[in-house]
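Continuing the series of single-chain predictions for the mutant panel. This is the parent chain; the variants come on the following pages.
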Amino acid sequence: MASTLHDPVGRNVVDVAQSRAGRSQPYRDARAEYERIHALREVSPIAAHLRERRFELGLTQEEVARAAGTSHSAISRLEKGTHIPQLPTLQRIAAVLDEELLVCFHRTVDGEIEREFAAVA
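Parent structure:
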């Protein structure tokens, strides 16, 4: 039997979320955006991460594009998961989102996974 999550006052978490959604359009909008980001993560984790970070910072695609020195359409395609920019462009986008772009080297040695991360310079 699955356990049911409860909030501190004992109400079911699903009921609380639905209650909030019924009272607040911004809450419904944010919840819908996070559902879209979750679905996008299955297709393109990079796109989902960048979209989520932009949403958290309250930036528009146009603002990110302008600050990163790229086009609005490039940001839109990136967030749809249909485009991966070159590393210098991705670095500039990450900087606008107050993040650092890292690469990961991944290998298996004697059945053990080894990962090494490095900043993209």
